[in-house]
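Exercise (ungraded).
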Amino acid sequence: MNPVMDQSYNDKRAAFIAAVPKAELHLHIEGSLEPEMMFALARRNGVELPYDSVEAVSAAYQFANLQEFLDLYYLGMQVLVEEEDFYDLTMAYLERVRRDNVRHVEIFFDPQGHTERGIPFDRVMQGIQRALDEGRDRLGISYKLIMCFLRHLSEESAFATLADAEPWLTKIDGVGLDSGEVGNPPEEFARVFEKCRDLGLKLVAHAGEEGPPDYVWQALDTLKIDRIDHGNRALEDAALVERIVADGYTLTVCPLSNLKLCVIDDIGESPVKTMLDQGIKVTVNSDDPSYFGGYINDNYHAVANALDLTIEEIAALAANSFTGSFLGADEIAKGQAEIDLLMRRTAEPE
Ligand code: HPA
Ligand code: ZN
């Protein structure tokens, strides 16, 4: 029997997705700003929004490409002004994903999206950091913090941001590269990434979301990144796939983001299963959940249903989220052991 035709299998799989411990490795904290909070913070801070209602915000979230999304993403983050705002934003995300059995997060933040409008770097850090520490202690969610450089801005601006970050480097685990991809190739940030590497930071970069496979090659060979964000278009280049598999790079794929930004036309085109089949360490993530219509488990459910994934494949995705994280070996082993235990329990007859 084809297990995917079996309703009880589908129910078991859904229960497995809900229960399986997982890490989220691709999440822009500013992209978790829900319309309700956007309105509340706008009121609190006296910021004018070009929307009449929460419903109007949600209705505006129709994007033909990455740039259309980014325009609203940078607009929305203008309501983030005080330390408390960054704290509230981060805490709301952590409380939400605790319900999805997320045990570890590696959160991106975009300091230039704030410093460019006069918000001090330290204020952003203090708010995010306080929520992450509280989330770790109260909710049991461990974390790493990844500071992203906006690639539509200059190398000079990236270096200035790194200088702002220097007093905080014990609290920042890595750097990333995000914002409009096409026309802003990774190699333009080679020098700042080299400096970050010398400072002992982990390196990641968005590559191959809209940009060509060559941008993924540049991220690997010029930036020398540790993990690839998105990487969808790597599949167009067999030699690149071979390299990714041989060197064991993890890819942080974001299915509902891909759908909303028209990287794919249908969720059934998500590359998650193809990547698993090719031996790529693929993970499932939400990217900007408030803008793309789903948190991490929504993304797991969407690909599981559309691609007829097996429970073993779901377990592999969850395991990849730990092995691809920047956690230490003991914590990775703990995550894997919990997944294995749940697998054994799921396999037992009822
Ligand atoms: N791609 C590039 N930049 C971003 C994204 C994304 O999906 N989300 C927030 N900034
Ligand atoms: Zn992203």
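Further reading is listed at the end of the chapter. For now, observe: Strands lie at 22-28, 102-109, 142-150, 174-178, 202-207, 227-230, 250-253, 281-284. The two ends are 19 Å apart (CA to CA).
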